[in-house]
User: What shape does this take?
Amino acid sequence: MKLLYTPIKGYVHTVEALINYAGLHDQIEPVATKPFDVDTPLANVNPLGKVPTLLLDSGEYLAGGPVIYEYLDSLHRRRKLYPSKGPQRWTTLRQAWMADGLFDTFVLLIIESWLPQDQQRAAYIDRCWRKIIAILDQMEKDAPSYGKLDIGQMRGVGAVQFLRLKMAQVAAAVPSLDAKFDPLIDRPALTAWYKPMSRKKLFREPLIRLE
Assistant: This one.
């Protein structure tokens, strides 16, 4: 299998963490991909032109984080990250979807930050930022009930880590944002969960090491 994705220095994607968890390194070839490049070959595999995209040995492709995560989770013998049934399955899926929303909304702000400041949309930035804060506040409420590692928590680590990594860079280009913002400040439950979880080995080993 080939995994088309965009490596980011200092960051372990959820798909990388899941591959680490499942021990699937020998079955997957990571392919560094820049989806915003004009000449990217990604569209030849995935018509949406988005990463991650997983190209199976059969020639079929899987696209979208949630689809790829669940497929990879089906390939190992460890405890599954997706509960198979019951209320916990729906709670886990809701938390994973919410973390996806945190990541995706922050990516929208990154794209907005590429515009000259006089072309940036203040109302749009404010709407995105309010969504980010609301998601972080919900994660603070959810954190005390987190149990064994599941896809919701794994995705949550990735989203919070990405926000912390890129916040200063985005705020430097978007004056209304605070470069010193940290999603853990004033969120003690989220902090108590995130810090030990993010130090686990599976969140510290990227598939491609960038110098």
